[in-house]
Design goal:
Structural class: alpha/beta
Strand content: 15-25%
CATH topology of the largest domain: Beta-Lactamase
Radius of gyration: 24 Å
CATH superfamily of the largest domain: GAF domain
Number of domains: 2
Helix content: 40-55%
Order of helices and strands: EEHEHEHEHHHHHHEEHHEHEEH
Shape: globular
Number of helices: 13
Strand order of the largest sheet: 1-2-3-4-5
CATH class of the largest domain: Alpha Beta
Largest sheet: 5 strands, mixed
C-alpha cells in the first residue's frame, strides 16, 4: 500500500441549520448556524439558501442572527454573498453575525458592508446592543426615528437583547440534546442530530427549547417505540380555557389564553406566565403583557431568588404582595426593579401538577400599593392555574411525546 498518496478529503459542504429562539413573535430571533466550507463554485447555491432562510425570518417577524463559527474557508465568497444579501435587504433590520473566523471578520471590516453588524462573540453582541439601546433611549422620539428611519428602534434593540440572552440560556440544552442523540443512536455529527430535532419541532409545532429539554430528561427508549403501550389521552375538561374553541395542541395560543384570562379575572394592567424547564430546573418566561422592558430584562436574566415567583414555586402556594416596598420576602434588587417599572403590588399563583409539584407561575402586577385580589378573584385564579396544569400535563403526554416518537423514528430510519 502506498503511503499517503491519496488525495485529501474534499472540504465539508456548507450547511445552514436554523432554529427559532422561542418567545413572543416580536421578540424572537432566527439563529442560522453555518458550518462547512465555501468556495466560488458554491457561493451561488449558498446565497440562494441563505436568502430563503432570511425570507422565512422576515415572514415570521424574526430577527436573523448568523453564527459563522464553523465556516472553514471562503472569505471572498462569503464577503460577496453577504454584500449581495445586505444590498437586497435595504430597509430591513441589519444582519447580525457572531463568531466569524478572522479571515471573514477582516474582509467584512475592510469592505465596510452596510446592513451587516459583526461581533466576535454573543456576549460582545449583547453588550454592544445594550449600549446602543441606552444611547437611543436618551434621544427624543422624533430625533431617534427621523435621524435614521431604517435603523431598529430602541424597543427593537431591547427585544433583540432579550432574544439573544434567551439564546445564550437555551444553547447549552440544545447541545446536551444533540449529544444525547449522537451517543444514543451513534449519529455521525451534531448536525444530523439537530436536523432531527428541528424537523420534529416544526412538524408538531413544539418550540425547539421545549423539545430539547424533553429529550434530555426523558427516559431512553428501549425498543422500536420510545413509549410503548401509549394510548391517546382524553382531552382535559376545561371550563375557563375552553372558551372560543381554542385548540389545545397549539401551545403558544393556549399560554397566551392563560394570561388573557388571568388579566381579565384580576383586572390587572400587566402580568406574565412562566413555566419550569425541567432540563435546567428554572422558570422560563413564556408570555407577558404590560410589563416594562427593564423588568422583562430582569426576568430573562433568570435571577429568581428573592422574588414572589420563587416563593410561590417553593411553597406551592399563592403569594400576594400588596406592598412591594414593605414586603420582606422580596430582595432589594427585585424590589427596585418592580418599583422603578411602576409595580407597587403583585400576586404570583403557582401552577401545580397532580403530584403537587410546581410547573409554573402566573403573576399579575398592579400600580397601586395596598391592592389585593378579592376572595372571588383569588379563587378563580387558583382554578385557572389548576386548568393550566391539567392542560400542560395533557400537552406533555400527548403532543410532546408524539414529537419525541418522531425524533426516535427519524434517527433510527423508520420514519
Amino acid at each position: 500500500m502506498k503511503p499517503s498518496s491519496a488525495p485529501s478529503a474534499a472540504p465539508a459542504p456548507l450547511v445552514i441549520e436554523s432554529s427559532v429562539v422561542d418567545g413572543l413573535p416580536a421578540e424572537a430571533a432566527l439563529l442560522l448556524r453555518i458550518s462547512g466550507s465555501l468556495d466560488a463554485a458554491g457561493a451561488q447555491a449558498w446565497s440562494a439558501e441563505l436568502r430563503g432562510h432570511l425570507e422565512q425570518a422576515d415572514r415570521a417577524g424574526l430577527r436573523p442572527v448568523l453564527d459563522m463559527a464553523h465556516v472553514q474557508l471562503g472569505g471572498a465568497a462569503v464577503l460577496h454573498t453577504l454584500s449581495e444579501t445586505a444590498r437586497s435587504r435595504t430597509g430591513r433590520p441589519d444582519l447580525i453575525i457572531v463568531r466569524a473566523r478572522p479571515g471573514v471578520r477582516e474582509a467584512v471590516h475592510l469592505a465596510r458592508l452596510d446592513g451587516v453588524r459583526l461581533y466576535a462573540t454573543l456576549d460582545e453582541a449583547l453588550r454592544e446592543l445594550a449600549r446602543a439601546a441606552a444611547r437611543v433611549e436618551d434621544l427624543p422620539d422624533w430625533r431617534s426615528q427621523m435621524a435614521d428611519p431604517l435603523r431598529p428602534s430602541y424597543e427593537d434593540l431591547r427585544k433583540e437583547v432579550r432574544a439573544l440572552r434567551a439564546r445564550v440560556r437555551t444553547a447549552p440544552v440544545i447541545g446536551m440534546a444533540q449529544g444525547v442523540l449522537m451517543v444514543r443512536y451513534g449519529l455521525p455529527d451534531s448536525g444530523t442530530a439537530f436536523r432531527a430535532l428541528r424537523d420534529a419541532s416544526q412538524r408538531f409545532n413544539v418550540p425547539l427549547r421545549v423539545l430539547v429539554s424533553a429529550v434530555v430528561v426523558a427516559r431512553p427508549p428501549a425498543g422500536e417505540v420510545w413509549f410503548p403501550g401509549r394510548r391517546p389521552l382524553p382531552v382535559p375538561q376545561l371550563r375557563i380555557l375552553a372558551r372560543d374553541g381554542r385548540d389545545l395542541r397549539y401551545r403558544r395560543r393556549m399560554i397566551d389564553a392563560v394570561l388573557h384570562e388571568a388579566l381579565a379575572v384580576g383586572r390587572a394592567p400587566g402580568g406574565y406566565v412562566r413555566f419550569v424547564d425541567p432540563a435546567v430546573h428554572a422558570l422560563m418566561l413564556e408570555t407577558h403583557h404590560g410589563c416594562a422592558d427593564s423588568f422583562l430584562d430582569h426576568l430573562v436574566r433568570g435571577r429568581d431568588e428573592g422574588t414572589a415567583d420563587a416563593v410561590a414555586r417553593l411553597s406551592g402556594r399563592r403569594v400576594c404582595v400588596p406592598d412591594v416596598v414593605a414586603d420582606a420576602r422580596l430582595c432589594e434588587e427585585s424590589r427596585r426593579v418592580l418599583l422603578t417599572t411602576g409595580t407597587a403590588a403583585l400576586q404570583s399563583t403557582p401552577v401545580l401538577s397532580a403530584a403537587g409539584s410546581c410547573t409554573g407561575v402566573i403573576t399579575l402586577h398592579w400600580p397601586d400599593a395596598g391592592h389585593r385580589p378579592t376572595a372571588a378573584q383569588a379563587e378563580t385564579l387558583d382554578a385557572l392555574a389548576a386548568e393550566t396544569a391539567a392542560w400542560l400535563s395533557w400537552y406533555h403526554r400527548s403532543v410532546l411525546l408524539d414529537a419525541l416518537e418522531h425524533v426516535h423514528r427519524t434517527v433510527t430510519g423508520s420514519a
